[in-house]
Amino acid sequence: MNRREFLLSGVAALVISSPAAAQMQDHSKHGMDMPGMSPGDGKTAVPAASPVLPEGAPLRDLPRLANRASGPGRFEADLTAKPAIARFAEGVETPILAYDGETPGPLIEVTEGDKVAIRFANRLQGEETTIHWHGMPVPADQDGNPMDPVASGADRLYAFELPEGSAGSYWYHPHPHGRTAEQVYRGLAGAFIVKPRQDPIPAAYGDTPLFFTDLRLASDGSIPPNTMADLMNGRVGDHVLVNGQKKPVLTLPAGSWRRFRLFNASNGRFLRLTFGTAPITLIGSDGGLLEAPVPGLRVIDLAPAERAEVVVAFDQPGQVVLRTEDVDHGWMGPGRPDTAADLMTIDVTADRAETAPALPAKLRRIADLGPPVATRRLEFTETMSMGEGGMKMGFLINGASFDMNRVDVVAKAGQTELWEIANLADMDHPFHLHGTQFQPVETERDGRVSKAPYRAWKDTINVARGETVRLLVRQEQPGLRMYHCHILEHEQLGMMGVVEVRA
Ligand code: C2O
Ligand code: CU
Ligand code: CU
User: How far apart (Å, rounded) are the C-alpha atoms in residues 132 and 123?
Assistant: First the structure.
């Protein structure tokens, strides 16, 4: 029996190994509901009585982390992770984990070239954590690796300098061993924008981050723990929030051009974004601007952790709905949720905006990484085996589950490599690498190869089931770096490895 047949048959209890099982036990100790252990219960941790979230409020700006540095070229701040109470729905209080009391956490905005020093305080109760600066070129010992935990009650300084050319839309989130998924779905994640010194995008377009997070609420307002279906498929909750709000409204005059930074900060939700019939111009990827705008797109696909920068023109008065279409990324077992949802309304009013300046034809140059001197192959697999007490699932890279004390790949700083990520599994897995941005080269499926249509800096890329994706990778700084599936439940279940970059 293969895995899919087994799941569909729904006959036996599943046993999920190590950290996940430990986490579930933790929850039961703390008196939280035990998630269903049967694969047959689909996604339904929360029955119909799920609280109703208010909709239609004006889109809020993300709160900002204040810079208390006195001179230019520096960003200095404090940031605290601690339990907080959120009021997502009328009449219920939701215990969350938050950076500075907010979810999403405060927007951190700096300029390329800045020296950044963030003093972090872990005030989570009885849990270690780290802050990982997702996608950013920071030294390995400042990057919040699971090997560098900050104990509950402890403080640490994260300090790094952001080089020229690093402008882009990044984010930050915890990365402690075995608890990343839970800390993120309980509220710990925020946007980190590095602005260029010279921005080629007209200021008249504005610059609006839209930070998408996933939320599931139980009827008492609490955030339920992951179920077995969440662990297998990646958590998909009941709501997609935009900057922490359900279906906010953005009001713009007709003729407006807007620049949006789109962040998929959900644990396991695939987004396929559309702005009604308005054409989308892609101007940037995870690691900043493209070389030239890519106009005329209808959808932007964002796997968990991916980002994009887009420009959208709102010509006619009326309503435009930012929506995510349903995506099937290879759901295991019954109960695949319909993931289509309206996310935000853009109310285009009849008063005309001033004529916006045109988007420049060239945005910047992206370095040629040159020919690779080494090739790596990583294979994603999912396994089911009979173990003590039932079937055991594994999410593996090159046949191995994550081990913090094992180095899986040794690379050399400054050397270009070709990384080949082959997905031999039944589900899509978004591949993420720490420490650097990479350049997609091509995708192979059923022996057909499609070249990447343009050069782009990426740190996360979806590798669909049955696909092989090839990337050019160059790590500039020595140290231990993680690579993993960014469905955080899969990362937790072991789909992660370590590359040691040597000087
Ligand atoms: Cu966004 Cu290893 O993480
Ligand atoms: Cu990362
Ligand atoms: Cu995965």
Answer: 17
In terms of pLDDT, which residue wins out, 20 or 304? 304
Grouping H, G, I as helix, E, B as strand and the rest as coil, residue 21 is helix
Q: How far apart are CA 436 and CA 468, in angstroms?
A: 20
Q: Is the CB of 432 under 6 A from ligand 1?
A: yes
Tokens 């009585």 correspond to what residue? 49
Angle at 466 between CA 464 and CA 467, to 5 degrees: 60
- Digit-coded pLDDT (tens) for 324-352: 999 999 999 889 999 999 999 999 999 99
Which of 210, 195, 177, 178 lies closest to 104, judged by CA?
210
Instruction: Give one DSSP letter per residue of 128-147, joined into a string.
Output: -B--EEET----GGGS--TT
Q: Please give the distance, rounded to the nearest whole angstrom, from the Cα atom of residue 53 to the centre of ligand 2.
A: 31
CB distance 173 to ligand 1 below 6 Å? yes
Residue 321 has pLDDT above 60, yes or no: yes
Handedness of CA 110, 113, 119, 121 (dihedral sign): positive
pLDDT at position 2 is: 52
For the residues 51-72, what does the mean pLDDT come to? 96
**What are the two backbone dihedrals, phi and then psi, of residue 368, each rounded to the nearest 5 degrees?**
-85, 120
Closest atom of ligand 1 to 482 CA is 2
Angle value at C-alpha 447, between 441 and 448, nearest 5 degrees: 55
Q: Which residue carries 């992206």 as its tokens?
A: 366
- CA 497, distance to chain mean position in Å, is 18
Nearest CA to ligand 1 atom 3: 134
3-class DSSP assignment, residue 408: coil
Distance of alpha carbon 205 from alpha carbon 260, whole angstroms = 9
Rounded CA-CA distance 199/222 in Å is 42
Predicted pLDDT of residue 32: 33
Which residues have CB under 8 Å from 436's CB, separation 6+? 137, 459, 473, 474, 475, 476, 481
Closest to 178 in 3D by CA, of 397, 380, 23, 28: 23
